[in-house]
Design brief:
The complex is a heterodimer of chains A (about 130) and B (about 280).
Chain A: H1 5-23, H2 27-30, H3 33-36, H4 46-59, H5 61-64, H6 80-85, H7 88-97, H8 112-124
Helix pairs in contact in A: 4-8, 7-8
Chain B: H1 2-14, E1 17-18, E2 39-48, E3 56-68, E4 71-82, E5 87-98, E6 108-118, H2 140-143, E7 148-161, E8 164-175, E9 182-192, E10 209-221, E11 224-225, E12 232-241, E13 247-255, E14 263-273, H3 276-280
Antiparallel strand pairs in B: 1-14, 2-3, 2-14, 3-4, 4-5, 5-6, 6-7, 7-8, 8-9, 9-10, 10-11, 10-12, 12-13, 13-14
């Protein structure tokens, strides 16, 4: 039993790491290449940032915080993953499909231009 | 008791409402689920004057709660008022919707299961079987004696494409007494008047209005499937979502045959409370 203890601990640690990876950002690996490469038709436009801010306040702020800083278990949208690792196409894909097992609903009910405006706002947060 | 009721009302009034982005449909369900933790309170009404019967107002109040991203549960209380007759509570319904596919596809199915216990219902939230004008000729005292304990199932199919929402419902309903399965359908399309949001905050921007068309009707029952002696309705529909406030919907609908009520006027108000249970936990 004692001989197997290190292997058991390694297995537990590996499981914990895998669970953490799944719970945090595993969605990025699921984004199809065609969506990953999509370009934002509103990229960097100040008007789109303002419109995206309005959409964020109406639909997202209650869960993700007024300034996207995260609320309790709902993640911050100012993290490196959102601001650096994820492309605008990745964020658009996440908004369309959600991450339903993790509690993030699909926002496909918003028209596509509004989703891109929201992405523009989210990407403006790192500046 | 009175103090606690007032406290609950105050908490609800202070709760942060959300722009619900509801579809302007009265009968048709879209595949879009309630966001988890949100409570949507909706009041829907239908006014009509069947030939040879009194004018009526059928109403229901609905409490729709997002249990999970893939599971929405809803409780209804129904009532109706008929001119020269009476105003009565007609029963309750409890429905659950489940979304089996957890990503957005071209066509998105949702499974709907409802139990209803109603009598003399005139809210017309669905039309199935041979529902039609003859049901409205019966006075309330007599209609109330016909208790309808029913299981209703729907296959909801929904698509979003270039701002358009297209939704189709296939309905099968079974009275738990010895009645046969009854069938019906509903479909609707709608689109916001403008797809992109405005940079400034505004109450009456075009993107806050949605317009569309809705059609629904009965398809007979297991022993007499088809269009014979079934009612059908079609009409334009529109809604407006106030910023951080209610959504108001309206639709004039027209009966397509003699078995249908010639005109129905539907109107509704819905109000969404975000993260409803969080209010009682003293946080977000």
């Amino acid at each position: 039993m004692i001989r197997n203890l290190p292997a058991l601990l390694m297995l537990l640690m590996l499981s914990a790491v895998l669970m953490f990876a799944t719970a945090n950002g595993a969605w990025l690996a699921r984004v199809p290449p065609s969506d990953h490469q999509k370009t934002n038709p509103y990229g960097g436009q100040p008007q789109a940032v303002a419109a995206g801010r309005n959409i964020f306040e109406e639909h997202c702020a209650k869960c993700h915080g007024e300034n996207a800083e995260g609320v309790k278990k709902r993640p911050s949208l100012r993290t490196e993953r959102i601001q650096q690792q994820a492309t605008e196409g990745d964020l658009h894909w996440l908004l369309v499909n959600g991450s339903m097992k993790k509690g993030m609903p699909s926002w496909a009910k918003l028209p596509d231009p509004q989703l891109w405006q929201l992405v523009t706002y989210l990407k403006s947060l790192h500046e | 008791m009175k103090t606690s009721a007032i406290s609950v009302l105050l908490i609800l009034a202070a709760a942060l409402p959300a722009a619900a982005q509801e579809r302007p449909y009265f009968v048709t369900y879209s595949h879009e689920m309630e966001e988890p933790g949100n409570l949507d309170i909706e009041v829907f009404n239908a006014v009509g004057k069947p030939p040879g019967a009194n004018r009526f107002l059928g109403s229901n109040i609905e409490f729709e709660y997002g249990v999970k991203t893939w599971w929405t549960s809803e409780f209804y209380l129904d009532g109706q008022a008929t001119a020269n007759d009476s105003t009565i509570f007609t029963g309750y319904r409890w429905e659950n919707r489940f979304r089996p596919l957890l990503r957005e596809h071209w066509i998105n199915p949702v499974i709907y299961v409802e139990f209803e216990n109603t009598s003399a219902d005139k809210a017309l939230r669905e039309v199935v079987g041979h529902d039609g004008v003859p049901d409205f000729l019966v006075p309330n005292w007599l209609a109330r004696q016909d208790k309808e304990r029913e299981i209703e199932t729907k296959l909801i199919l929904g698509s979003n494409y270039r701002g358009w929402n297209i939704s189709e419902n296939i309905i099968a309903e079974k009275n738990l007494s010895n009645d046969p399965w009854e069938f019906g359908y509903a479909w609707a399309v709608s689109r916001p008047l403008k797809l992109a949001a405005s940079a400034r905050k505004c109450a009456f921007c075009a993107e806050r209005f949605q317009a569309g068309l809705e059609m629904y009707g009965g398809l007979g029952d297991r022993y007499s499937f088809g269009l014979n002696q079934t009612s059908h309705y079609v009409g334009p529909t529109v809604n407006w979502s106030a910023p951080n406030g209610p959504t108001i919907s309206f639709s004039p609908q027209f009966g397509l045959n003699d078995y249908s009520i010639p005109r129905l006027y539907r109107f509704g108000v819905s109000y969404e409370i975000e993260q409803f249970l969080g209010i009682f936990r003293g946080g977000n």
